[in-house]
Amino acid sequence: VGLVGGPVGCMNGAGGLLHLDHAADTPVRQEVLDLVGQLREQSLGNASASHGSGRRARAVVEDARDRLAGVLGVHADEVVFCSGGTEADNLAVRGVLAAAVTTGRPLCSAIEHPAVMEPVLAARGRLIAVDRHGLVTPDSLAEVAGSATSIVSVMAVNNETGSCVPPSVLAALGEVIPGAALHTDAVQAARWLPLAPLMAVVDLMSLASHKIGGPSGVGALVVRRGISIAAQQIGGGQERDVRSGSHDVLGIAGFALAVELAQVEAAALAQQAWCCRRQLLDGLAVHLPSVTVIGASASPGSDEQVVPGIVTLLVPGVEAEALVFLLDRAGVEVSAGSACASGAREPSHVLAALGIEPGLAAGAIRLSMGPSTSLDDMERAVTELTASVRRLVELGS
Amino acid sequence: VKVLVAMSGGVDSSVAAALLLDDGHEVTGVTMKLWGGASDNGCCAISDTDDARRVARQLGIDHHVFNFGEQFDEHVVKPYVEAHAAGRTPNPCIECNRHLKFDKLLRRADALGFEMVATGHHARIVVGPSGATRLARGADAAKDQSYVLHMLDSVQRSRVVFPVGSLTKYEVRRLAVERGLDTADKPDSQDVCFITSTQGRARFLAERVELHSADVVDAGGRRVGQVDHVETVTIGQRKGLGLAGGDDRRYVVSVDVAGRRVTVGGPDELLAARQPVDDLVWIGDRVDGIVEVQTSAHGRTSQATVESNASVEFAAEIVWISPTRRVAPGQAIVLYERDVVVGSGTASAGGSFTAVS
User: Quick count: other Cβ atoms within 10 Å of Cβ B311?
Assistant: First the structure.
């Protein structure tokens, strides 16, 4: 995996509100805003209409499709635009299952996003165990080898831990489970890793726009030719008969541009983020030595593979909810676990699957970086983290 | 003052937040996610949380959700199930106030830098003659919640505020309407929040402990009926006892879970002259004269004096001025002087069961 790194080209940035939750949502890029602004000036209609405005809109959509296909190294007709990562994941799992001839139970890794895991479990699927770094191991491969199933899903980069599954492991999965469609959720990967090598070894890939500087509410499922998939949202069939609903023309255009730019910049961003990660971990080692980090020993090229910009800290003796609150008050935005429908934070199934005991997982927070993240930001993060953690340890929470 | 207001999504806590803002406080709203299972308001009480969030937005204050589900299971649900299994009648609202709202939340508020915690309870904190704080009934006698808050100690009483405690429910709703709060016409919450009205208590318990049938006998030991779940039978109950002819002038006067026996008797046999109590504590000086005694959340009070047990610490007997209904073991017994809480204890099953006729 192309984790380019090294202490060169580290940048410093300005202060202000410190958003370290880029893995949840990252600001829309100026280039995307500009493009969307330009397109708004044009008379664009419903991309399925036959009049001039409709044809112009269709051209915008098809241009975006070509660009996305070009980045991924796939055919344009393999790109299905939809509303985002969750829909793409649902469509992949449920769509393939619905179209499948074989009736085996679907498989996914134990650290998938709920958008994959819940459809898999709802279809009485099985989970593939991961090691403490979040990687699918040869042992777990052997365990599922020969499974009769129509779909296997393993995410490229985990949204909580940043751990990544190299294309070689995905390819190996495909080999030990012949006949199954291989899906990867590449929603978090798109910012950090080249997507084409991943796409080369899978049959389906989910992407989301708002994690990489595109508008929210748009994404894509890439479905390789020859993979049977049944529409899950029906009534119109506007998107290649696999997805119904009028095209979000401006969103799709902005999304495709965002993917292109993210892919061009991925290596440089990773390099910058490695610097920031080191700065953060070094600072924490000094000021908060009790804090441990998932993927702590990871570095570019090491066996323990993580993307640098997603950092999960385990803070003993502290409740993550309280820590997130205090950091928010200090202007530092981080996240903890995932949110349930009420907005409450729920214990992480990902950390549990990594074998992290619940008491420690209760103090887990995630810091995730984006293009604006600088070394100064990391210094500030260390300062605010230290103050907040010390307060909570002292007062309890 | 920086105040954290616990917003349940109901009208009382909505108005509490509004009143605190009126008084110029720095107000932040929080909804505690306590129960992750089914409830009458949806899983995780999602709609209640949404209501609280909407009101916070109307008021222009920050709103957060704290997940205290684990603590709620441990301190409220588990003891609730265990109490029923042991034949006691628990009050989960009291345990929730004791462990969640006025312990966990208070500590969390401390850690996050809040000076006070507010809730929408109908109760008041008053200053007694000695200058010490006391808990008193809310202004609306019908909505008073001091019974389920009796355990607040002096530190807690100095840290909590009940902004609607001096208002009637009518006034609370009127204020909510005047301000256009979305929760103005929301119905009052009822019953145990973690048990759905469709599922019911017996099924909730049956999913967690083994329930047993029991014989229903009269004072002479003669079998007169049967119950499916002795664990859900409470003293004073007169329905669901399988009595011939649906006799509803006979009440449960004692429950023996271990012996699988429920004893019924007439209205007179339900009465007792004295009620044994454990864990008796006085808030301030012990009252030697007559106190008003409340034995259930929305019950009337009866007059009594309190006789301490010389041999067992914290054990005592309530000596009723006139014979009064027996209290189910496990129920809180709260002592008032006029409308001020002066002490409390827990009804015990021990002691003499001298029937009064």
Answer: 6
